[in-house]
Amino acid sequence: MTIVDYGNEFHISFGYDSYFKSKVADVKLLPEYKWMFKEKYWRIPSQYDMEVKLLGQKYRAHMIHADQMAAETTGEIAPLPELDMTVGLLAALKGTLMHYQEQGVAQGLQLKKFINGDEPGLGKTFQAIATLVAADLRGEAVFPALIICPSTIKINWQREWEKFSSKKAMVLSDKTLNTWHIYWKTGVCQVFIVNYESLKKFFVQSMPKKGKDAKSKDIVMRDSINLYNSVVIDELHRCKDPSTLQSKLCIRIGLGKNYRIGLTGTPVKNKPADLWPQLAIIGQLHKFGDKKQFLDRYCEGGRGANNLRELNYLLNKHCFFRREKKDVLSDLPEKQRQTILCEITTRPEYERVKQDLLTWLRQNGFTNGQIDKKMRGEALVKMNALRRISARGKLNEVQEFAQEIIDAGEKLVLFCNLHEIVDEVKRLFPSAMTVTGNDSLEIRQQHIDSFQNDPKKQLIICNIQAGKEGITLTASSRVAFIEYPWTYADSVQCEDRCHRKGQTNNVMCTYFLGQNTIDERVFELIMEKKDMANTITGGTDSMEMSIVDRISTLFNEL
């Protein structure tokens, strides 16, 4: 629980835990309480300070006095520097840096420990490679380098290193579990690539005993992590939860590295608190105080958000930069969106399951949008059941739409969420390529290459989780969603597989929505503007919506 004293009123907020219901009940005993639905806090007038303090004592609340907080520190964000070694770097690279990419490399060389938050499609991978190559040319110790990335893009990272530089890269595997360091010592490889899920296998010697909450400092790491001089963490936002093992291991692996580079187009997907673990991983949290000071200053203790203009200014001053395509790729055509309302063929089944959900909601008394942690998960399962039924009911119109594009000689990228939908579309279009969790990394890459280079391969079906990151599908300017993610940030990630550097056509993104279904309401919610993320990162749209928390209003009009 966090209680912020603003002088004339208190703001009380808390997350979902085993005491959630009792906290709600106790807050409702306070005089003149008011639930601020949009901001997610309870407001209590200041004259009830004794009652509020007793409540805080009961739950050991984190007390913050807003009137003691310093005024926001803001200023002009300096333009990124120019690269002063362009000729030498260009000779060492096999590709050509665009001007904004040169500036990104120049800033990286100055900062050394930083987050490149460029919008997806602007070449963060290339900039990271160029930064380490440039540092190497200046005589800095950066190799061997470790790349930590999602499993789906390990092969892509390997190919990018060998495409753009003379450095050799290898993907760590079970065969090289204990011998990979020999490849460095013999000069065979300078770059090593590993996915998040394999960090423990390759770099942990022992974990604390079961039942003990493992802190990063309690994990005994192998000495081999000290061999690396730099680390690049791709999709760094995956480490926004400090309690996960992958976040703890990334912190340990980054310690002592000359360069720590985080890459993410969506550093803030939900709230400012997402940032502090990422800052800790790149070794820059101290620029904002410690964890407690960061949460107090920018997160109202943890769940809220405040002083965001200052946070944006200090991020850009110390360890972060972000550019958007509309600002640096003037020749990149615009991206457009359209929705197609479908009369689903599964209507009877949909209505039956919807009524079951409405009955469940009423029986559990969801009247104010508040759902405890256990019920929240159950609600999500029930909502996903509705989305699955709607997805199956849209396939006739999807088939007609896809066939028209194929008949016109164009290519199409189709995004789905469920494997059963992927399988059904594959049955309708047997020659289609796929990028799914069921495909091996080698098969995925073969399918991507075929789609990009073979005019006869006109359709590729992507599972959202497998296809939203790290791949390029610019052979197509048509993207369609049979199903779509729960967050706007993930929707943009999917769209930008086509809308990125190298695209020469206007990208049209089509969303199939089941008419009079959950699709319409969820789509409306995830497309809402994300002002908080704008203020923090300077970006346009990357804030995750907490849709399940708004479940009681989600069905008001259904």
Approximately how much helix is present in the residues? Answer: 25-40%
Assess the beta-strand content as a share of residues: 15-25%
CATH class of the largest domain: Alpha Beta
Into how many domains do the coordinates divide? 3
Number of strands: 20
* CATH topological fold name of the largest domain: Rossmann fold
CATH architecture of the largest domain: 3-Layer(aba) Sandwich
Let me know the largest β-sheet.
7 strands, parallel
Structural class comes to alpha/beta
Question: Helices and strands in order, then pairings?
Answer:
Layout: E1 2-5, E2 9-13, H1 20-27, E3 34-36, E4 41-45, H2 49-58, E5 62-65, H3 86-92, H4 99-111, E6 113-116, H5 124-137, E7 145-149, H6 154-164, E8 169-171, H7 180-185, E9 191-195, H8 199-203, E10 204-206, E11 220-221, E12 230-234, H9 245-254, E13 259-263, H10 275-281, H11 291-299, H12 308-318, E14 320-321, H13 325-328, E15 335-342, H14 347-363, H15 373-393, H16 395-407, E16 412-416, H17 419-428, E17 433-435, H18 441-453, E18 459-463, H19 464-467, E19 478-481, H20 488-495, E20 507-514, H21 518-526, H22 531-537, H23 551-554
Parallel strand pairs: 1-5, 6-13, 6-14, 7-9, 7-12, 8-9, 12-13, 15-20, 16-18, 16-19, 17-18, 19-20
Antiparallel strand pairs: 1-2, 2-4, 3-4, 10-11
Q: If you had to describe this structure to a student in words, what would you say it looks like?
A:
The protein has 558 residues and is an alpha/beta fold. The protein folds into three domains: 2-68, MutS, DNA mismatch repair protein, domain I; 96-327, Tandem AAA-ATPase domain (Rossmann fold); 335-554, Rossmann fold (3-Layer(aba) Sandwich), CATH 3.40.50.300. Helices cover 40% and strands 16% of the residues. It contains 23 helices and 20 strands. The radius of gyration is 25 Å and the shape is globular. The model is unreliable at 367-371 and 540-547 (pLDDT under 50).
